Here is the input.
Amino acid sequence: MKKIIIAIDGFSSTGKSTIARKVAKKLNYIYVDTGAMYRAVTYYAIKQGFIKNGELNSEGLISALDNITISFKMNEVSGIAEVYLNGKNIESNIRTMEVSNYVSPVATLSEVRKKLVEQQQQMGKDKGIVMDGRDIGTVVFPQAELKIFMTASVKTRAQRRYKELTARGHNLDFDAVLGNVTTRDHIDSTREDSPLIKAKDAIEIDNSDLTIEEQVQTIITLANKKI
Ligand code: C5P
Here is the structure.
């Protein structure tokens, strides 16, 4: 059977990863969460002191990029591919508010994007992949056979993120989560390099009122027409 590339882009907390992971599982495809890669670089920047007192030392981070190796490894228990930074599992360190607050500024840096995009293209070279992010259908795989652009109202998205974080034991304020989602959307959509925009040939899905299963089924139906 022909293998394709499925690119899923969209705003923060649209549930892209959940849907992309399920679609990949159904098709027996690889799933790659590119947001986790930008988060891993941000976590490294915090740990190495390139982010201090609210300031990002862009030059310092850029000069250290060669010291960063990001990989994914399947957690056999959960069935989820977890992210590793220089061989260390950092899956539980990258979804904090601290990382969320700095990831979009880090993701504006062209040198960071170049490094991660090259790795992403390498991961998709044999197709049979579902990748989610902000620039997958526009920059990473402009030739992807199926492109999805996910949206939902900002309030719905902040509520989802708040629920997800509190379920993981984080104690936070809803307004802080709403503020983070809004700020990231703004930075991601207005940056110069690879801004978040809907590719001309992407199919838009507003999932404010759709169940996870409905979204997965919609994408599988679209994918089956291309396979
Ligand atoms: O998908 P997630 O919300 O985890 O992504 C975190 C951040 O990483 C985004 O807000 C965006 O700034 C950046 N990102 C990006 N390009 C991608 C994936 C994520 O710039 N392909």
The CA atoms of residues 13 and 160 lie 7 Å apart. The mean pLDDT is 96. The radius of gyration is 17 Å. Residues 12, 34-35, 38-39, 103-104, 107, 133-135, 184, 188 surround cytidine-5'-monophosphate (CB under 6 Å).
